[in-house]
Amino acid sequence: MEALPELYAIFQGEVATVTEYGAFIKIPGCRKQGLVHKTHMSSCRVDKPSEIVDVGDKVWVKLIGKEMKDDKLKLSLSMKVVNQGTGKDLDPNNVSLDQDERKKRMFRDYTGQKITLEAVLNTVCKKCGCKGHFAKECFVQPGGTKYSLIPEEEEEEVAAAGHERDKKTSLADDSSKKRKK
What we know:
GO cellular component, one term: ribonucleoprotein complex
Strand content: 15-25%
Subcellular location: Nucleus, Nucleolus
Strand order of the largest sheet: 1-2-3-5-4
Order of helices and strands: EEEEEHH
Protein name: Zinc finger CCHC domain-containing protein 17
Structural class: alpha+beta
CATH architecture of the domain at 9-91: Beta Barrel
CATH superfamily of the domain at 9-91: Nucleic acid-binding proteins
Organism: Glareola pratincola (Collared pratincole)
Shape: elongated
Largest sheet: 5 strands, mixed, barrel
Number of strands: 5
GO molecular function, one term: RNA binding
CATH class of the domain at 9-91: Mainly Beta
């Protein structure tokens, strides 16, 4: 097997190919190539790796990962932790690499989990008399604010019609009281 650089070793390599997701770098002294993903090309956001490097360019890289996948050794490289002018290590303790790993691990995919809504329709609370929940879920505090659901349009129209009827009967009662006097 060919002599590969040690993990976290810095070396100057030549850009072999540029893709939409990064650039493959020829590792000196062996036939292997490593990938500099576009997130590891610069500390700034890189949308198109072809704007950063071209085929044949010499770049300083740091070997940040080795992974066996499908009986192939995949090498991960980083340009952003190496000064491109001098080849000096900008992250000698690998702190930024650890932070990048933590960011990746913190993301969790919740798409497989189901969300269940336990809505209750057309119920009346025995505790407060409001619609839409049960007494065990009631949130009215003694002497506190009482909350209820907003009535739908049909209910508002029925309530408004009932209110108009009440006004007319109260006006009729007032006029009959005046006559009696």
